[in-house]
Design brief:
The protein has 6 helices and 12 strands. The protein is an alpha+beta fold.
């Protein structure tokens, strides 16, 4: 189907307009159907044609004994001496590919190698070529919940006399971050961690001292604690709680521990921790009592150079 230049131009304009309104921090989510592996992958490496069957079986040994089980001492059984490599991370030649997997990647051979367990989707063979499509599961970039998605990889070989003589795959060179940029990023994150830790300290001191203004001030304007949203509502919540306390009620300490800070992007982070609410005690006086405990997950964002709580979510347990 051919697309006219006018229609193509309109599509490009629409796509550009859509990209322009997307926030820079928008998280990309997978749109594809899941990649499903074949239940019996070794059955795909057979053919009624003797020539294709020989090449498919050699590809099976490469996938199983070499790539899966790391038995690179046997590589000469299925790879030619010249083995032309098109993966930019590995040089051509049998010795080079063995060096890459053994010395660079540090692959160790497994003691047994009975069955192919890689998630093979399909195997195609024609003439001297065999292409294997493999399923892959990867993390969703920037997903604070650790979600994953599926996609595919391929390995394609050209065979000569039953041995792979040439190889292709979709590998690319990794992104290079200049040392100065990496150092700047590390310094920024270190400074932001200190600021976020100070933010959480200001939070617990505000609630421990029932300072409603200071408490509301550590949140964004639309910040929330559970179902309570907005600075005015948060200020009112703390004022009401303080007003309802009995005159002889013990003072409280809100303790956060095992805290981790995960940066989603330079202006957004997730803070996870355990929390405890403890009544204040002292030498010769009442013993402190553990009143409640649980875990929490807060979202904090940087606004105008200042870290603030966007949402605080705690649960008992």
């Amino acid at each position: 189907m051919r697309i006219s230049k006018k229609v193509l131009a309109a599509l490009l304009v629409a796509a550009s307009s859509f990209a322009a309104v997307m926030p820079a921090s928008a998280q990309m989510m997978p749109l594809n159907d899941p990649v499903v592996a074949h239940p019996d992958p070794e059955s795909l490496f057979t053919s009624s044609d003797p020539h294709l069957h020989r090449n498919k079986q050699a590809a099976l040994h490469i996938m199983r004994e070499l790539l899966q089980c790391g038995q690179w001492s046997r590589a000469g059984e299925w790879l030619t001496d010249q083995y032309i490599q098109h993966n930019p991370l590995a040089g051509s030649g049998l010795d080079s590919v063995i060096h890459y997997f053994v010395n660079v990647a540090g692959v160790q051979p497994t003691p047994t190698c009975d069955r192919l367990t890689s998630p093979i989707v399909s195997v195609q063979a024609e003439g001297d070529y065999v292409t294997v499509v493999i399923g892959r599961t990867l993390p969703i970039p920037g997903d604070p919940n650790g979600g994953t998605y599926t996609t595919t990889w391929f390995d394609s070989w050209r065979f000569v006399d039953g041995k792979a003589d040439q190889h292709w795959d979709p590998a690319t060179l990794p992104n290079f971050t200049p040392p100065a940029v990496a150092a700047d990023t590390a310094l920024r994150e270190a400074q932001d961690r200190i600021a976020i830790e100070r933010l959480m300290w200001n939070y617990v001191r505000a609630i421990d001292t029932w300072n409603a203004d200071a408490y509301a001030g550590v949140f964004t304007e639309d910040g929330s604690f559970g179902e309570t949203r907005g600075r005015e509502a948060l200020r009112s919540m703390v004022s009401t709680m303080a007003g309802n306390r009995a005159a002889d009620a013990p003072m409280l300490h809100h303790v956060m521990s095992n805290q981790t800070i995960e940066f989603v992007n330079p202006n957004r982070a997730v803070v996870r921790y355990y929390w405890q609410t403890v009544s204040r005690g002292g030498p010769g006086g009442e013993r402190p009592n553990l009143l409640a405990q649980g875990w929490g997950e807060d979202v904090v964002i940087k606004q105008n150079g200042r870290w603030l709580i966007q949402s605080r979510n705690v649960a008992p347990g």
